[in-house]
Amino acid sequence: MMTKFRIKLMLAFLFALVFVIAVDNFFIYKLNFNVQFEDLRSKLKSISAISSLMIDADKLLSVPLNREAIHSPQYREIAKTLLSIKQSNPNIKYIYTIAKTDAPGVWRFIVDLDPLAAHSKQIIRASAFPGDTYDATQMPEMMAAYEQPTADKKIMVDEWGACVSGYAPIKNKAGEAVAVLGVDIDAGYVYAIRRSALWRTAFILFGGIIFSLLVAFFVSRRISEPIKQLTKGTRKIAAGDLDYRVRVRGKDEIAQLATEFNSMAASLKNANNKLRDYFYGIVQSLVRSLEAKDHYTRGHSDRVSDYSVKIAQAMGLPAAKIELLRKAAQLHDIGKIGVDEQILNKNGQLSQQERAVINEHPAVGGEILSSVFDDADMLSVAKSHHEHFDGSGYPEHLAGNQINIFAQIVSVADAYDAMTSNRSYRPAMSKEEALRRIKEASGAQFNPEVVKAFIKTLNETA
Length: 462
Description:
Elements: H1 2-52, H2 57-61, H3 73-88, E1 92-100, E2 106-112, E3 133-135, H4 140-143, E4 150-151, E5 156-158, E6 161-171, E7 177-186, H5 188-218, H6 224-238, H7 253-292, H8 300-315, H9 319-330, H10 341-344, H11 352-358, H12 361-370, H13 376-384, H14 405-419, H15 431-440, H16 448-461
Antiparallel strand pairs: 1-2, 1-7, 2-3, 4-6, 5-6, 6-7
Helix pairs in contact: 1-5, 1-6, 1-7, 5-7, 6-7, 8-9, 8-14, 8-16, 9-13, 12-13, 13-14, 14-15
C-alpha cells in the first residue's frame, strides 16, 4: 500500500510540478518576446519621430515626381539627410519618404534610398523613383502615420528578410503633415530572442521533470516552498521587476532550477538595458550631428558632461549616480533638434519670438527622452537645466530643491562652457570673467553648493 501511495504521490506531484513549470516558463517566454517586440516598436517610433524632424518639408515637396528627379538638387539634399540618418543608426535597413495621392490607398514615393547606397560612395541610387506609386491599403500603420508616429504591430517577412517598419509624419512650418518618413529595422534578432527563449524553456522543463522525480521520491514535502519562490519570482518578472531574484538554499535540482530562473531574469534585464543603450546611442549621435553643423558648439555636450562629472565628484555623489549624470549631460540639449538652424546659428541678438522658440527646447528634450527613459534624474537634465535657483528660469519656474540636483549641476557646467566658448553672436569670455559671473549668480541663477564645488574643481585643475 505504501509503495502504491508513494507512486501515486510521486506521479501526482510530478504532473503538478511539470504543469506549473511548463505554464510559468511559457508565460515567461511570451513575456520575453512580447516585451522585446514592444520595446522595439517603441524605439522605432522614437527613431522615426526624431529623424522626421531633420527633413525639410518644403524642400521635400519641391522634388519633381519623375525618374529624372534623382539628379535634382532637392532630391540630393533630402537623400543626403536620409543617408546621414541611416549611417548614424546601423540597424536601419531601409529609409524613405512617401506621401498620399488623391486616390484612396494609393501613395507615391518621393525619395527612397537603395540599401546598398550606405555602403558605397554613391550618394544617390534610387530603389523606387520619385513618383512611383505604392498600394498602402494593406499597411494600416503607414496610413495612420499622418496623425502620429507609429510602427508595425507584427514582423513583416519577405525576400529581403524580416523587418519592422516605423513611420512618422513630416510636417511643414505650419505643423501640417505633408508626407511620411518610413524606417525599416532588421528584426532578425527578435527571432533569435524567441529561439533562445524556446531552448531555455525546453531545458528548464526537461530539468524540472528529472529533478521532480528524484525529489518527489525522497523528500516531496521539501518541494512546496521552492515552488512558491519560483511562482513568486515569475509574478515579479511578469510585473516588470527584472531585478528580483529567487533565493533557494541547497545544491539539489530545485536550487539549480532557481539558478536558471535567475539567469533568465538577468537575461531579460540585460536585453532591456541593451535596448536602452541602443536608443541612448541613437540620441547621442543626433546630438553630435546637431553640434557638428555649428563649429561654435562642436564638443559642447562633451565638455558640459566632463564639467558635470567633476562637480558631482567634488560634491561626493555615488559613482553610479555620477555615471548616469555623465550620460544625461551629453543629451541635455537634445531638444534643440527641433529648433530651426537659422535661429540656432543667428549672428546677433535673438528677437522675442526667436527667444521663445529657443526656450522651448528643454521641454521638447524632456518629451523626446521620456518616451524611453523613465529615470527622473536623467529626464530632469534635459527638461530643467535652464531652471534658476531663485525660480526665475524656464520652462516651469522651479526653485531651490524643486530642481533636481542633476539639473542644477548641468546648469552651472552649461553656463560656464557657453561663456568660455566662441559663439556666432560674441567672442569667448576669459575663464576669469566667466567664473566671476558664475559667482555673482550664486544663490540667484545657481545653487551655491554647486558653485562652491565647481570653483573647487577649477582650483584643483588650475
